[in-house]
Task: structure prediction
Amino acid sequence: MLRLGVHLREYRVRLAEPGDEARLQALLESDPDYFKVIQGTPPRSTEAKDQLGDLPEGKKYDDKFVYVIFDRDDALAALIDLVRAYPDDETWFLGLLFVAPASRNMGLGTRLLDAIFAEIKQQGGRAVRIGVDRGNVRARVLYDRSGFHFIYERQRVYPDGFTSTIDVLEHLLY
Result:
């Protein structure tokens, strides 16, 4: 388990638990525009459940870490989804970094990325990879500013036929 809380003293960080699903769903539903951009529809009623359960092919649940970040008022401020050793043994995949609209523009995303980088590097990881929808301009600015670089693009097709272009980015940790 990563120890992200060490770098975020004013926040409480812990692994997500099954009882968190309703709060996670409310967090994800707090920004319907995000989902309209990345999947062409408002958030589905199963977004939180899917986030907790989705794994890349060949990975096991002991490789997945979903963190919930609470502010001083115990409001859910952010969600992090990480997969260890994917797509290779030295790379971690950041499946989602979602900051609540009320917690944005305060540097939390940058601080979370810095904490993720430090902890993964301490555990021997050499890179963090992420897929960013081209329409998610604010996220792309954050990742570019944090030292991610473009590797390749791919198309993602959703079950309803909505297609989006994903930029795969990587941040080297040495």
